[in-house]
Amino acid sequence: MSSRVTRALRAALIGSTLALATTFTGVTAPAIAAAANPYERGPAPTVASIEAATGSFATAKVTVARSAVSGFGGGTIYYPTSTTAGTFGAVAISPGFTASQSAVAWLGPRLASQGFVIFTIDTSSTLDSPDSRGTQLLAALDYLTGSSSVRTRIDATRLGVMGHSMGGGGSLAATRTRPALQASIPMTPYHTTKSWTTVQTPTLIIGAESDTVAPVASHAEPFYTSLPSTLDKAYLELNNASHSAPTSTNVTVAKYSISWLKRFIDNDTRYDQFLCPNPSGTAIQEWRSTCNYS
């Protein structure tokens, strides 16, 4: 089942909940809309909350040894400690060529504190191809939901992928393989395949204006353009930024990654305000999108 169909079913469920609540309580739907989304986690967002280094959830982490898994190289799971907020969506993140999980580690606690289970992974080899990294991202998600120590905290129907460089190319490859994924964020992605017409997962591609490793003209931009015009998608180009921009704390990367994951993994339309109309600012060289989103 595609992510678009899954989101449509969720929207129908939310709509039915509103209708029933209105029937039995006499309260109008808008008054109870916020509470009706069963995937909504955390307080109403603000610019300050999505730019903050820490969100509203306390977090913990657990190390997964390479020897304890198969299909990828282990990693670190960051997760909300709350057991009262319900289950959470989960995201696996791959580093790029020659890199370890430390290159994307800053995203772990930052995204987890917003209400996600985040798995920053090591790949089987630091030299693995983008397609291999895509397969390993899916193996990491399967481990998360099937046998990890935090599996009971995860809603296995609400999963996403992210990655840097060849890991970003891996994110695209993972969504091509598993269209039920709910969100994908390739960051300064690299892949020799330029056409991604079969992808059905909402995708935010983050490019960097001054990237000389994976120049946007031959990577991020054609990737975005090739995605279906009917897809919920966006292209963010970081102003005067290099290929490595997503590998250290970056408020712009964080705030829009949070918004994208919230919007499409949690079906949380409170985050539409940060994505539509197209954002602008000194940190943004260019933004393209197909908003408003379904």
From TrEMBL:
Organism lineage string: Bacteria, Bacillati, Actinomycetota, Actinomycetes, Micromonosporales
Superkingdom, taxonomy of origin: Bacteria
The family this protein is said to belong to: Belongs to the AB hydrolase superfamily.
UniProt keyword annotations, A-Z: Hydrolase, Signal
Classification via InterPro entries: AB_hydrolase_fold, FrsA_esterase, PET_hydrolase/cutinase-like
Residue stretches making up the PET hydrolase/cutinase-like domain: 34-291
Pfam families given in the database record: PETase
Name under which the protein is recorded: Lipase
Record has Signal as a keyword: yes
Keyword Signal assigned: yes
Signal sequence range: 1-21
